[in-house]
Amino acid sequence: MEKSKLKELVARIEKLPTLPVVVTRINAMVQNPKTSAREVGAAIATDPSLSAKVLRLVNSAYFGFPSQISSVSHATTILGFNAIHNLALSATVFQLFHDNGAEELFDRRAFWEHSLGVGVLARMLAEKVRYPDKEEAFTAGLIHDVGKIVLDQFVHEEFRTVVSLVRQNNLLLYEAEAQVLGLNHANVGYILGQKWNLPKKLQDPMAYHHAPGLSKYNPQLTGIIHLADIFCRTLKIGNGGDNRVPPLNKEAVADFKLTSADIEYLKTNSEKEIEKAEIFLDMV
Ligand SMILES: [Fe+2]
Ligand SMILES: [Fe+2]
Prior knowledge:
This protein is mainly alpha-helical and 284 residues long. It has helices spanning 3-14, 21-30, 37-45, 48-58, 72-79, 81-96, 108-128, 134-143, 146-154, 156-169, 173-181, 185-195, 200-208, 219-234, 250-253, 260-277.
């Protein structure tokens, strides 16, 4: 693709929907060390539909708290504001790209299942490798491929060529995207992360999950998402729009020191964990 077309494409992507005002406010709040959990709770409480979603999630089997949590402020105290921020983000990102009635070029249900699977496996991996925030790992997994939806919705005709190339030549989506568009869904993720002013630690996994060596701000989480993506494809959980398993960057995951017992644990428990997280699929 010529430079001018690529520029035009980037300009089109930059016009994408913004996050709801309240989520943008929370984004800024969590990046300010002076913010208190109460302030974050109060910000969410200003948006009734977001509050309802957060409460539904907090009271679901995903968290499995023994008793009912009936207010956002209570939820914020229990989970901490980072986790609440991640919940708010997870509950809203996919809604922005809700079914717009147009023809979809790949199976959305399978795509959400892939995203959910990567989120859940990332959360499990985070625990194994002692990443400090497992809800952040879940959110990063859930949103890692959102660039694909963007390309399908906003660059639809060109994306049609991408998808047929994937099918004809059994390519990975990101390979075909690069060939046809001159950029891939992870590059789109980079643009989105900046546009939405997400914390850098959440931007990197979206932008570099296929090239984790490039992550500057959060190589550990980027490596986790890279590995969770490959796990999900190997275990055939959902489908992200292509059928091959991308190569594993061994260097990016070497520090994880996963044992074969760890891998066995992930394999046997992922299904059960994914079931508990299915509630997130109701939100999209
Ligand atoms: Fe991807
Ligand atoms: Fe993926």
